[in-house]
Amino acid sequence: MPVPKQRHTKSKRNRRRSHHALKKQNIIACPNCGQPVLPHRLCGNCGFYKGRQVIDVLAKLEKKQKKEKEKELAEQQEQAQSLDMKEMSKGS
């Protein structure tokens, strides 16, 4: 089994490991429902991406679950719109 010929210094080891650090994820709020979403990805909660509905999140749900989800989405849209109005009023 091969063995290192010379010992690596602490600084050499640390410089090699400098790229192993975790980077902070940039999380944004979905403009449609207000849920946290990673940028350049569709919202898993409402199925929207760039203002368009890409997938129908209600398609695979049963009737009872569908009503609950529709109600939840409506509430989230109202909250997102009220937040937008507050931000606009602050800007004036």
From TrEMBL:
The keyword Methyltransferase does not apply. This is Large ribosomal subunit protein bL32. The keyword Disulfide bond does not apply. It comes from the Bacteria. GO terms for biological process: translation. Pfam families: Ribosomal_L32p. One of its GO terms (molecular function) is structural constituent of ribosome. Residues 1-23, 69-92 are annotated as: Disordered. Keywords: Ribonucleoprotein, Ribosomal protein.
